[in-house]
Design brief:
Blueprint: H1 2-9, H2 17-156, E1 160-164, H3 175-186, E2 197-203, E3 216-221, H4 224-236, E4 239-241, E5 244-250, H5 254-261, H6 264-273, E6 276-280, E7 284-289, E8 292-296, H7 299-307, H8 327-332
Antiparallel strand pairs: 1-3, 1-5, 2-3, 4-5, 6-7, 7-8
Helix pairs in contact: 6-7
InterPro entries: L1_C (IPR042566), Transposase_22 (IPR004244)
Protein name: L1 transposable element RRM domain-containing protein
Region (Disordered): 304-333
Length: 333
Amino acid sequence: AHMRTERSSDTLDPAQPSIDIFNDFLPLYQLFTVTIERAAGCARGMAESSKKFETGLTVKTRGMSDMEAIAEAVLEKQRGYLEARFGKLQQVAEDTEAKLGVIQADLLSLNESVGCVNVELDKIRANVESNRGKLANQETVLEMMQRKLADLEDRSRRCNVHVIGLPAGSEGNNAVQFLTKSLPKWFPTLSNMEGEIMRAHRVYSDDRKNSRGPPTLIFNTLRYTTRQLILRAAKKSPLVVDGRPVRFSPDYSGHTVKRRQAFTQAMNMARKKGVEFFLLYPATLKVKAAGKTEIFQSADDAEEFISSLPTPRTPPAAEIDDSDPGPSSVAAE
């Protein structure tokens, strides 16, 4: 449009029409020529790039083939190695499975054995429980039989008297004659003892070196009533011979003596506190305190009770009942 405007403004020369046309199309020709050259250059570049790509692709394809061959070789070696290892592992697994089978069989056998043992243990437990009850019953029966035997032995000794603290040798060669003459002198209430003393002798312990005081003199009376008269007279009038106290006590069995000795501590506590007490046959402590009377079969209970009592100013005399058992005590047993 610019060119047309310029041409319309000038005066047209009819003699130069071809030159003007050439001048008009020259820039277009030059532009077309440059475009063609550029296109040719691009085509050549693309051709060269295509050749390079084909060459690289060929090289890469050859490289991939080589890598595939190497990978196949490596995989083959690995396959052989792993197959050998897997074979060994399979053999080990088979051996282990066989051993586990043996162990499982042993465990089943052991389980059966344990079941049998449990059954036997249940039987043993039942027998033990049954025997425990029987044992407790037998212990009760044994204790009762011991007390009955002790009672029978005590009754067989009911006419015996112990003389404790009498100087050794005082009786001379004839203890029966000595006691027959001495008892009326010691206790005037015993006027006539002729024929009442049946036997008399000293009782020696196994350990004479460590024994305290002279050996005990024991004698047997003809009648139980005579023994009781002697014990009561000795209790009312304590005897002293050669400046030493002499005590008279009944003769009991070893079982009864042990039961009575268990109350020694309780009786000593009662004496210190001035509490009146009585040791009844066979082994029962009777305590009088604060206007009440308490009876104890257990030494521990007696000690606990006496320890809780206050100490009076004037202690009363204590008493020990040394009488033999009567029908009521037998019924109590």
